[in-house]
What does this fold into?
Amino acid sequence: MAVIEQPATLSAPARPSVWGKVTAVLALLGRSRVAIAGLILVGFWVVMASFADDCIIRPACWMGDSEAVSTPWLARYSPFEQFRGRNLEGPSADHWLGTDRNGRDLWARIVHGSRIILVLAPISVLIALAIGGTLGLIAGYFGGQIDEVLMRVLDALMAFPQILLYLIIIAALGPSAVNVVLAITIAGAPGIARLVRSLTLDIKTRDYVAAAQTRGESPWYIMFVEILPNARGPIIIDAMLRVGYAVFAIGTLGFLGLGLPPPSPDWGSIVNAGRKFIQAGHPWDALWASLSIASLVVGLNLLADGLSEELGRYR
Amino acid sequence: MTTSPGKMNEPVVRVQNLAIAYETHSGDVNAVRDVSFEIHRGETLGLVGESGCGKSTVAYGLVNYLGRNGKIVHGEIIFQGESLVGRSPEELRKLRGDQIAMVYQDPMTSLNPVLRVGQQMTEVLTVHRGISVDEARTRCVEMLRRVYMPDPEAVMGRYPHQISGGQQQRVVIAMALLNNPALLVMDEPTTALDVTVEAAVLDLVADLRRDFDTAILFISHNLGVVARVSSRVGVMYAGEMVEQAPVREIFAHPRHPYTQGLMRCVPRLGADKAGSVLYPIRGRVPAPDRLPPGCVFEPRCDYATEHCRQERPALRQISNRHMVSCLRAEHIRASEWQPTEDIIPLMPAADAAEPETILNVDGLRTYYKQSSGSPLDLIGLGKKRYVRAVDGVSFTIPQGKTLGVVGESGCGKSTLIKTLIGLEPMTGGAAQFLGFDLEKKASKRDMGLIRELQMVFQNPDATMNPSYSVGTQIERPLRRFKVVPPNQIHAEVVRLLRAVKLDEHYYDRRPRQLSGGEKQRVGIARAFAGRPDLVLCDEPVSALDVSVQAAVLNLLLEIQREQGTTMIFIAHDLSVVRFFSDYVAVMYLGQIVEIGPAEAIYAPPYHPYTESLLAAVPIPDPSVAQQHIRLEGSVPSPLNPPSGCRFHTRCPRRQLLPDGGAICEREVPPMQDAGDGHQIHCHIPLETLHDLEPVVQIAA
It folds into this structure.
């Protein structure tokens, strides 16, 4: 096929600023409707989580000072405040989404729950990325025996059903935020390692890697400076999907009672607590929390899809 | 060569003022504008031009196979008296199968890998003609025989991957001819093939035109290839046909400045060494959406005037059957052209004193282990087999000289330099460079050695890391080798950029903003940043357009001259290395079969393999007489090389020896010294080799 060459940009751009890069990514996303839909869903939860209360402007709150009383903003109420005599109510003007069996406002709990999930899910994926990415780079770049041993160990880990891995790890270490992150990291790293390894196998045959080798560069320099940046496209898209899975996993753990201990407003726990009242004519707890999980996961997936579509088009 | 199609009344295909556009994000882009030509029965029209000039678009436009975003904007295509523009896809599909056949560049992608050759071929007849399977089979075997396929019956039962590249292309051509098409479109059919295989396929194309009386549209970027098969030649530039004439006429008297420029930047084997100096065309092909307002070639033309800047010339007849689109065609004489100073290559000055030997390679071997595929391998007990990529290579290079290494693909030339630079582990033998031993891999070598030994790579798109700017990538070796103090690094990068004829603005550019030639220049700047003593070049220009090739080659020479660098230069054909190599080594199946001073290689006595390589090079000059020597088959597997002389299975000169060369199968040929360091590894006595006729002779 005759290929029309994209005209080279002749006006030499200065070093691209950070802001320039951000607008470039947004412009890329803007071309895909799927990505815009994803961005709206994810953006909604990010805004809710950020401005649920005035925590964002009071560092004391960040330091984990539980005594500090925060003023609710978008959440309208504290997630722990119990309104006496108003338990198990449906949606109303006072309580937009209704209240739970303890008379706590569901909207406040859902919004605060998003804060937990939006911190834990990306952190666990980032750690998995660091570990899995490094292992994948090592296996792919060195090859041979190192590759065999590493990949067989990771294969063994992947052979376990993920949910079983979560159960084992949480059961052994006890439910807490740190352990949830740990469980998701361990379960996610092998998959990332596989992806990074296959990308490395491809990229390491390029001439610029050979050029670096003929300069006598160290393997670490070649792996992290020459190879990794060129694998970033697929890695970013994969990571975005994985954040979605992590949201799902955290929800599942909460539902099984292995997530964050009560009274924290964990979405999975809310579904689990509300489950008992569905047949009693109060489906609201389970419904809203499930919808929240679903919307965030769908949003992340749409974002990843749109991004990969746009990136693929110009490859 | 030329037939006289003028006598035939109706052309098979007539294209008038064809314009084709592609829809893109930023609106329609006109890839082809105002192209007209006709092809008669038994005639081959060769279309030449650099990449992006619209040659393939014209071919796809003929059958309206332009893809979703392509469309014919304007013009008329008359095929056997009927217009093709505006036909329904279904009609065109039938026509393509029945009357028009296409042959593409890569034969492997044209054949279905999961079907046997016979099945694919018979399908053409049973589907389009409704012929019974048995009869179709007979006809296919017949057709394979006509394209000189050895043992056609057996080939019918094989899968595409079981036959060689040249044979695959023969199958594709045979398939194209099965329906006896009126028009055959061949889009770079030999570009993916080795020179020796290419020569055989081109012979076939030339024969077919005679035997089948088909009209052929032959597209190629290679002037030599076009010269060999065409009866008429059309030159395309930036989507326009700039010149069209019979083949002898256009090569003898090119009228358009672009055609003249193209001919000056391709090497001609026919001429003597001085005649193979290359002069690049400055600038590059404009993108189709930023064409100059006047003549499309005006910005790169040496003869341009104000008039050319304003008026777009049309293709006009200047003599019988010679058409050109240049306003000043009558005033331009190719013979009076003088190269402007900036494009004359500065040849390294010849040193009177005998320079020291810088690299000494002795019996170098590089083997790759390959498992035999038996289940025993799983537990490490399988029989190990070795691919003998480089098998006992010895040579020396004096300081500041250039060694050209030539051979077909798979002869081990790339492995040789990868071993020297330490990308592949050495299996045996020795190599000394500046007192260092080249035994270790690059990662374990001394920094002093690494700095003195650098490499220029083949593929311009892979030579630079797409994630970093040009400046960053040239800086890295400067920092690493501590060439200059840290505060002068920026200045040194700018100096290097200037040295490769790129200006300061390129510092912050990204690789994707550069053209192939520019990327290759940056690769050269990076290799020379540490001021190495020896630079290994792995076909640095083979992926570039011809007009850029010459510029990059001349640049390499200039830097070599300034820094006194020694070079090893790999090329796949003998014409490229001629004018700047001091020594040439010809490799076959991991061994050097002939090595010597460059002038000695191109005249008898030569090794029979060198002789066949010379005979295969397509020469862009139909007046040059070239001997007809064709190699049979392909390079044998280096897993199990032939005994005795490795070339004996394909050697066309074996019968010169008593017993039809029985000795070649038994004994390794001796090294014969033809004087002045010229060594030939062959059983045939030097005197006999000396009396062979020269392969290339310029007609008086």
About this structure: The CA atoms of residues 91 and 646 of chain B lie 53 Å apart. Chain B touches chain A through 51 residues (CB under 8 Å).
